[in-house]
Fold:
Amino acid sequence: MKLSVLATSVAGLVLTGTTLAATVELRVMETTDIHMHLVDYDYYSDSTNVTVGLARTAALINQARAEAANSVLVDNGDLIQGNPLGDYVAKGRVLRFGETHPAYKAMNLLDYDVGNIGNHEFNYGLDFLNKALHGANFPYIVSNVVVDDGDDDPSNDQPYFQPYLIKDKTVTDADGQLHRLRIGYIGFVPPQIMVWDKDNLTGLVKATDIVETARRYVPEMKAKGADIVVAIPHSGMVDSRREGMDEHATHYLAQVDGIDAIMFGHSHTVFPGDAVFDDMEGVDNEKGTVFGVPAVMPGFWGSHLGVVDLTLEGDNGDWRVVDSQTEARPIFKREGRETVALVEPVQEILDAVATEHQGTLDYMAQTVGETTANINSYFALVQDDPSIQIVNNAQTWYVEQIVRGTEFDDLPILSAAAPFKAGGRGGANYYTEVPAGDIALKNVADLYIYPNDLKVVKLTGAQVIEWLERAAGQFNTIDPSVSEPQPLVNESFPSYNFDVIDGLSYRIDVTVPPRYNSEGVQVSDQHRITDVRYDGEPIDPERDFLVATNNYRAGGGGSFPALDGSTIVIDAPDKNRDVIANYLLSQGTFNPSADGNWRFADWGNSEVVFKTSPDAERLAPDTVTVVRQMDDGFVQYRFR
Structure:
């Protein structure tokens, strides 16, 4: 009996605290920015897409889990919004309380340990978010969203969600012995949610600074017994100077004491790997560390699985990370123009969401009009474009109706829209194309991929020009004295910030440096935007204009001058996408041709190049010629 009691006591000791030094290998896996790409399917082209889908990422999860004795799995957010399946669940069939959201029908099969909340989780409002989260059989965290109780004293802030979680994990060491490891998870979301989803959040919640929130909670987690802390920031990484309330805060977060691993996301890039991280201070883009802290960001739409392998050593319950290795495992690779799948989808995931998938197909097939010409975004970054023209036409049409008989009835109306699908990080197939003929709801969603709300701002002519100056950061500076080919498009500038404003005509002089930097700060007194005209005459800088846009831009998204929410004069009751659908229904048959209201100023005899989809050649204007096929799947073009 004494021997039996002794054996039980020793077993308990091994699980609750290590008495001798032990080595444990722990694998932390991450998905992020799924954006409702649960199925390997493109709802816009009605075809299988091997570059996306949690169903394919699930195969990597199963493989990575089988390789490791000890593993955990986290999701970083931006899950429930992003493609027609997300809109169908939120707006088409409408999720009811008590039902399981299809995202969780899939994810509940994969044994997630914890989920973080991303900024796009708020797009459909807090009520919908709470209904959706009710279906997850794993806990959710986010630490920097607090209840808005009208009290400005931060010491009284009460978290709206669970800020962090400490979970016990039984792990096996190198000798096969069992130990208890207490893993702390803490989540973060960009504080800019209060701008991007102002209408959904104002008066209900507030957002706090990511780094300051970490400094508050990480010591608390350690004091409560967390052996290691895994941070899950839905936040990208830049190495510019910290400003506070930063959207991309991972670089600074890595310098907070007590964080042992960072599973980050939001900016749709891959770390380690993407060249943008090569020269950042404190970043090892091969090993996958940021100031020595292991970190990973696994792309978007299920394109990669993030894997951080931690080597832990423990002595009397004091665990520490002594080594690590990080990788972002892809579900596909590119071989020239070919896209090659590296895994097959997990059928169990496809079966779990089959009903909603079919419902989305039926929902998106509804016809709303007929186009007499092809609509595409292949050349949207280098010339006025039909995919943007339709959006601007629809927004102008809508605002003309809602201002009749109001105090704004006599103000000129402009409209701003940007190309959402224009290659970039989305890859060589990430473009809009709608053939001539019937146009369906799926095509409207392809033209306008975000569930934004239409807003109208009132600006002076001078402020409109500054808006265009900020958008012109889309282009590199071209040196007319250089004979070698010069790339026109700044690939680090997101195309959704390249606003084209209709109702004006103007030129963009790319031989002049950008007036604003990537953070929206004015850094030059020069002007790229020239020859701005309204109704054929030079624009009056003092004249007032109404400009149709969306809630993201009007509220400050993209850091555009004079757009911080204070210039909004009309909070429209409709979403931009609904406005486009209603416009097309009102037109019946329409011609989508662009009106050519903007073009580049002369850059001399310089050879200027850009890249676009290999599908663009049959629709290329005669101002461009093909140069070469590129290794990343794009085709390089030259302006004549």
